[in-house]
Amino acid sequence: MIKNKWMIKNSKNKRDAMLTFAVLGFLVVLAKFILSGISLTVNGTNVDFGILDATLVASILTPTLGAYVMRRHTDRKHSGDDVELPD
Q: What pTM value is reported for the model?
């Protein structure tokens, strides 16, 4: 059994792997955004973080956030709760 203490809790106070992966994906994109365009020289070695492009953002955020939203939609649909969404 895998211990899931590292997972983030969702709004129903349950540990949620998809929410955790979505947050991690967002943090990766945020780190890339902050470090983009920075070039460092460490012990004579040049470290370049490159630029942030839309392809990178889409390839990380679309699957993780999309899977999280679809799982939440599926959970709500099959839970029997008839909750109306605000317009």
A: 0.67
Domain locations in the chain as residue ranges:
18-78
Q: 77: alpha, beta or left, given left = phi > 0 and alpha = psi -120 to 50?
A: alpha
pLDDT digits (tens, 9 = 90+) for 24-43: 989 989 998 898 888 888 88
Q: What is the DSSP secondary structure assignment for residue 7, as one 8-state letter?
A: S
